[in-house]
């Protein structure tokens, strides 16, 4: 090995060590920014992220954990695939349901950043929570929303939060709604559902990636009025989360 090759390896090790320290001790914002840099370091960076994932609180809805899991999943390398299959074959949070609904398909779509498909599935899952009548008509009454189990809403919301770097989810939309004094006319343009008094047209005018406005997804059927949305945002699930 030449002196130049040795120096290159030493520099790489030093850079990895510095990045690791910055990542472990950084703020959430810092960590999100450092994840791609660690990934570019190759296997050494992957190992740092894999150890972080194993050591962090498995019960926490932590968007850094979500980002790490998603980016490791997307590598499609033997090392990362074996790690995921061994330690997190069903994702990084428990997919709890009081109605015995399988949320693994939603988890999979969101991990893969297939936000439009995940949005469609989310609407179907809300109908499933409401019952067979809602499944057949493909939308829900606000009175049905009131009966949704908090556990299920929290699971759906947690998956959207985890795999969007905290940008999407019912709780995100609810906080924005509260910030504008529960005024839906102010909320719709804020989250990109209305512009210049015109409704955003489905599906082509919506943004199906992380460049979307905060709270843009998942979509609710705003054209039927606000009672369903208000019922969802007023659900006890969110007070139980202290959000």
From TrEMBL:
Q: Per its UniProt record, what Pfam families does this chain match?
A: GUN4 (PF05419), GUN4_N (PF16416)
Q: Name one GO cellular component term.
A: outer membrane-bounded periplasmic space
Where is the GUN4-like domain positioned along the sequence? Answer: 96-236
Q: Which domain of life is it from?
A: Bacteria
GO MF annotation: an example: tetrapyrrole binding
Q: Provide the GUN4 N-terminal ARM-like repeat domain boundaries.
A: 11-89
Task: Tell me what this protein is called.
Answer: GUN4-like domain-containing protein
Q: Which organism is it from?
A: Crocosphaera subtropica (strain ATCC 51142 / BH68) (Cyanothece sp. (strain ATCC 51142))
């Amino acid at each position: 090995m030449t002196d130049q090759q040795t120096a290159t390896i030493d520099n790489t090790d030093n850079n990895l060590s510095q990045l690791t320290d910055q990542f472990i001790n950084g703020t959430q914002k810092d960590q999100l920014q450092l994840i791609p840099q660690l990934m570019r370091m190759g296997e050494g960076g992957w190992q740092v992220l894999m150890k972080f994932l194993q050591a962090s609180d498995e019960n926490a809805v932590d968007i850094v954990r979500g980002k790490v899991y998603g980016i490791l999943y997307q590598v499609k390398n033997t090392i990362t695939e074996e790690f995921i299959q061994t330690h997190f074959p069903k994702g990084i949070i428990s997919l709890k349901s009081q109605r015995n609904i399988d949320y693994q398909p939603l988890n999979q779509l969101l991990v893969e950043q297939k936000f439009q498909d995940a949005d469609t599935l989310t609407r179907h899952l809300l109908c499933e929570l409401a019952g067979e009548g809602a499944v057949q008509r493909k939308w829900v009454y606000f009175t049905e929303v009131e009966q949704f189990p908090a556990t299920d809403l929290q699971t759906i919301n947690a998956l959207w939060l985890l795999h969007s770097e905290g940008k999407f989810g019912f709780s995100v939309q609810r906080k924005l709604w509260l910030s504008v004094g529960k005024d839906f006319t102010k909320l719709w343009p804020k989250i990109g559902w209305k512009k210049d008094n015109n409704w955003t047209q489905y599906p082509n005018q919506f943004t199906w990636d992380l460049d979307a406005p905060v709270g843009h997804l998942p979509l609710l059927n705003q054209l039927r009025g606000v009672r369903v949305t208000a019922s969802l945002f007023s659900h006890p699930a969110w007070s139980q989360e202290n959000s």
